[in-house]
Amino acid sequence: RPDPKDPNVIYYGPGIHEVVGGKLKVPSGKTIYLAGGAVLHAGVNFFDVKNVRLVGRGMIAQDTGGVLLSHAKNVEIEGIYTPHITISNSEDVKIRSVKCISYKGYGDGMNIYSSTNVLIDGVFNRNSDDCVTVYGSRGKSHGSVKGVTVQNSTLWADVAHPILVGTHGSTSKPDTLERLTFSNLDILDHMERQMDYQGCMSLNAGDSNLIRNVLFENRSEERRVGKECRSR
Fold first, then answer.
1. pTM above 0.85, yes or no
2. Contact 146, 113 (CB under 8 A)
3. How far, in Å, are 154, 161, 178 from residue 137 at the CA level?
4. How many CA atoms within 13 Å lie on the side-chain side of 221?
5. What residue spans of 139-217 are helical by DSSP H?
């Protein structure tokens, strides 16, 4: 827990917090701390910044936006609750122990666009659309993706996919999505009713994307019977 008086810390204690305009724009070198019991009614934006952190046990309560990274470098997000996280044209991003629960229709959990070296570790995602996506170019995001790891996490998709790779890219200048690892994941449920859109692990090389070097690995299940513990 950081010192609330540290000039490099923006500290939100227990209670309801509002931000003028509904957006908190974080400067480089700053740590945002949401204490347990803190509820922030604002999106948190990391735009063109580096060496920033968003940590704590509090909540971001906003139906759109959540946490947005664009052209950010060396970002750490840990412990908080948020409806969404979007990572665009960013690098060296670590997301750990985050609870990501979206509640609007077609609300993705964690979207990665055109970024490099992204780690998602120990998260719980229940989302009203895709839980974790890896995309190429779309909108203001341009370029390929290299080096994404999603591990030790629990995913629950109401519709669409727990894991979706591909779909969006640049047909005129194709993107490459590569070095992607999905390890030690639990998928609790997947309730997509469209038969041709189902799939817990979806690799969709749309928009002329090239997808390569993808690894799904390591799922250990333990079943307890009486005093015995059997691993499979």
1. yes
2. no
3. 27, 20, 14
4. 4
5. none
